[in-house]
UniProtKB/TrEMBL annotation:
Organism classification: Bacteria, Bacillati, Bacillota, Clostridia, Eubacteriales
Species per Swiss-Prot/TrEMBL record: Clostridium fungisolvens
Keyword DNA repair recorded: no
Positions of transmembrane segments: 12-35, 47-66, 87-107, 119-139, 160-179, 185-207, 233-253, 285-305, 326-346, 358-378, 385-406, 412-433, 454-478, 484-503
Keywords in alphabetical order: Cell membrane, Membrane, Transmembrane, Transmembrane helix
Subcellular location: Cell membrane
Record's protein name: Lipid II flippase MurJ
InterPro entries named among the record's database cross-references: PG_synth_SpoVB, Poly_Biosynth_Transport, Polysacc_synth
């Protein structure tokens, strides 16, 4: 099995991420239809706790495993790269099982202390997923470090498909016993999806005989002691886990914060759950474009690490600028599109427009989140772990403070989370950029890199706006405003907007033929003729 280049790995992971996210988007309205908006609010709160534990244990270790395996592969020490994986898998299984047992034992205490007793059952049903996803992260870290993005991508789609199918089934079965049990049933698929993904990656490793392939390439290299491997994993994993943990701890604290401040503003418990569900819709949509950014971060990290080990500054600079530019190319049009089409998206996905104003004003957060995610990956790749921790802390504190003040006003309520989100990512983005330029000793302007995507997105937004006040208005008048009609309208808007964006980007040199071909020559061949003529 051959390693993929950064651009091809990114293309593969992006496609998988899009498919997985489409399944997730399909899941949200179906789950909401089964358990209701209030039940979805309970579901969201349950996942805040799980996501925090998952991030602390797994996100740091997956990146640490990938980073260290990339370093060992760069010097052709494949045997110790294999040992690193096996050791990490064992450690993660042990720690993951331990945290699973602790979560089951303390579920009632957490639910009561958080002021959300209705998440008790959901925490118990989610607990086994901690152990399973821990093992899954070990496998994914290994495949990422080896730059084998194909199996990594397929595992994501398989996991999400099983998660959606099983969760909806159990939500439907258990909701008859109460909303709390229905929302808990909606979490069951997380464990089964992770288990199936693990089985798939084990199968691929066995069939392709990956371990034999790489070990046979080993030269006469001095073996690394087990103690050294563990120390290296901890050295890399702890600050990355701390960063991920802090980010998700901020979300966890914010859950308590939002719940308490909504109560302070005079909302009842049920009203608070509904408002939290509305906030959950906004967060879910924000993370859709970030699926591609996550794929980019996963693909670019091994390339930066290998360039660092080889002291190849030119390759490192190219990889970093590629990552920043692609992040803007994706996040900026996504932000504009989410803002201009927010009402239509809410109608299609959630059957109503309640809360769409959050997206109108808050879609800009997508841009800041995307850049911060890539910046964090770059800084971690060049060993600036604790700076990432510091910048995240600044953003989290600003977010919590802002939400505490604004959400406590009844007329503002969850709309205040938009301001908190902007502060949480904009300030760290500025701090990270300054640190990157200083550390890597080359300067570039974030605004200048963003100029072409902004111009192209403005053109796209103008076309969509004209369609909304003309064609779409007529369609709604004569065909009604049902979900099917709005789905057609949304599809037309996305296709037309996407074509205008691509055409403008290609015309002003924002996208070149060489960049498209580096991902896959098939893509340029599939483009319409009028776009091909503009490529250069």
């Amino acid at each position: 099995m051959k390693e993929q280049s950064t651009s091809k790995g990114f293309a593969i992971l992006s496609l998988a991420g899009i498919l997985a996210k489409l399944l997730s988007l399909l899941y949200v309205p179906l789950l909401q239809g089964i358990i209701g908006t209030g039940g979805y609010g309970i579901y969201q709160k349950t996942y805040e706790v799980f996501t925090f534990l998952y991030a602390v244990l797994n996100l740091g270790m997956q990146t640490a495993i990938a980073k260290y395996i990339s370093e060992l592969s760069a010097v052709e020490n494949h045997r110790d790269a294999q040992r690193t994986f096996r050791l990490a898998r064992t450690l993660l299984l042990l720690f993951g099982t331990g945290i699973t047992l602790v979560l089951i034992a303390s579920a009632k205490f957490i639910a009561q202390k958080s002021g959300n007793p209705d998440i008790f059952i959901g925490l118990i049903t989610l607990a086994p997923a901690i152990a399973l996803t821990s093992v899954l992260c070990a496998y994914r870290g290994y495949f990422q470090g080896r730059r084998l993005m194909g199996p990594l991508a397929v595992s994501q789609v398989v996991e999400q498909f099983m998660n959606v199918a099983v969760s909806l089934l159990f939500a439907f079965i258990f909701v008859k016993y109460g909303v709390e049990k229905g929302s808990a049933g909606g979490t069951v698929g997380t464990s089964l999806g992770a288990f199936i993904a693990i089985v798939y990656l084990i199968y691929i490793a066995a069939v392709e005989r990956i371990d034999k392939q790489v070990i046979n390439k080993d030269k006469d290299i001095k073996r690394i002691r087990t103690k050294t491997i563990i120390k290296k994993l901890v050295t890399y994993g702890f600050p990355i886990a701390l960063s991920a943990g802090l980010q998700n701890f901020g979300a966890l604290v914010d859950m308590f914060n939002v719940t308490a401040r909504l109560s302070y503003a005079g909302f009842t418990k049920d009203q608070g759950n509904v408002l939290y569900g509305i906030l959950g819709y906004y967060k879910t949509l924000l993370y859709v474009p970030l699926t591609i950014i996550t794929a980019l971060a996963t693909a670019v990290m091994p390339a930066i690490v290998r360039a660092l080990v080889a002291k190849d500054k030119k390759s490192m600079k190219e990889s970093i600028l590629f990552a920043i530019r692609i992040s803007y190319d994706i996040a900026i049009p996504a932000a504009f599109g989410l803002a201009i089409l927010s009402a239509e998206i809410y109608k299609v996905l959630f059957g109503k427009t309640t809360g769409y104003e959050l997206m109108v004003y808050g879609s800009v957060v997508v841009i800041f989140m995307a850049i911060v995610q890539i910046q964090n990956t770059i800084l971690q790749a060049v060993n600036k772990f604790y700076f990432v921790v510091g910048s995240l802390c600044v953003g989290i504190v600003l977010k919590i403070a802002s939400n505490y003040i604004l959400i406590g006003y009844r007329d503002i309520n969850v709309k205040g989370a938009v301001v908190g989100g902007i502060l949480c990512f904009f300030v760290p983005m500025v701090l990270n950029h300054r640190k990157m330029c200083k550390t890597l000793k080359f300067k570039f302007s974030l605004l200048k890199v963003a100029s072409k995507p902004i111009l192209s997105s403005l053109a796209m937004t103008a076309v969509i706006f004209v369609l909304k006040i003309s064609v779409f208005g007529i369609m709604n008048t004569y065909l009604g405003e049902g979900r099917i009609v709005n789905s057609i309208i949304l599809f037309i808007a996305i296709v037309c907007g996407g074509i205008v964006y691509l055409y403008t980007m290609i015309s002003i040199g924002g996208i070149t033929k060489a960049e498209i071909d580096s991902m896959s020559p098939k893509v340029s061949r599939l483009l319409p003729r009028f776009l091909k003529r503009r490529l250069r």
